[in-house]
Amino acid sequence: MGLCRQALATLWACWGAERPPECPGTAVFGAVCPDCQSALHRLARVCTIHVTGDERLVILLRCNGCGRHYLNDWVEVGGWDDTPTEVVDRLFGPLDPAGAEQALSAMQSCPDPNDQHCDCLCHGALDRLIDRLPCRGVEAQEGR
Fold first, then answer.
1. H or E segment at 23?
2. What is the mean pLDDT of each run of 10 residues along the chain (144 residues)?
3. Cβ-Cβ contacts under 8 Å for 127 (sequence gap 6 or more)
4. Structural domains in the chain (count)
5. In sequence order, which residues have a C-beta less than 8 Å from that of residue 84 and are 6 or more positions away?
6. DSSP readout, 32-84?
7. Paired strand residues for 48
8. How far is CA 26 from CA 3, 57, 61, 101, in A?
9. How far apart are CA 68 and CA 40, in angstroms?
10. Owning domain of residue 111
11. Local structure of 94: helix, strand or coil
12. How far, in Å, CA of 68 to CA of 109, rounded?
């Protein structure tokens, strides 16, 4: 298994729907704080639909080193008609304390965070929040 697929398998193991609810607080594989280089830990995640129609994961992260909060926007696009997919992983933030609390509250209010078709208010709120935050990094890799 290639390094990219191995990393994706590790990410899905942490973020996937098959994970038990106690997953919040676990360190995110390879994710480090852009400000202090400490490991980022997942507080909450919500599955949505990207504008391309692909599944999108929005993950609220907290740095245990400096305490800052970030939103990770992870999308696997493509894969139609036997074309390879591309994974786009963007980190936004930091969020101010009120914004982090709002994001966590919104994500926890979603009745089914694993349902990408959920139409609760949380999903639109997260889109608007991401649009206001500075992007701190983008990583694009060929998927499967």
1. none
2. 39 40 48 90 89 85 94 82 79 91 92 88 83 84 65
3. 48
4. 1
5. 78, 142, 143, 144
6. E-TTT-PEEEEEEEEEEE-TTSSEEEEEEEEETTT--EEEEEEEEEE--TTPP
7. 56
8. 21, 16, 10, 19
9. 9
10. 3-142
11. strand
12. 22
Amino acid 1: pLDDT: 33
pLDDT at site 8: 40
- Token digits of residue 30: 């390879």
Among candidate residues 105, 100, 106, the one with its CA nearest the CA of residue 133 = 100
Q: 136: phi > 0 → left, psi -120 to 50 → alpha, else beta; which?
A: alpha
**How far is residue 75 from each of residues 22, 23, 105, measured CA to CA in Å?**
23, 20, 22
Decide: 136 and 92 in contact? Cβ < 8 Å.
Answer: yes
CA 17 – CA 113 distance, rounded (Å): 9
Joined tokens for residue 105? 């509250």
| Contact between residue 41 and residue 28 where contact means Cβ atoms under 8 Å apart | yes
Q: What is the radius of gyration, based on Cα positions, of the chain?
A: 15
Q: Which tokens sit at 130?
A: 């991401």
- pLDDT for the residue 42: 92
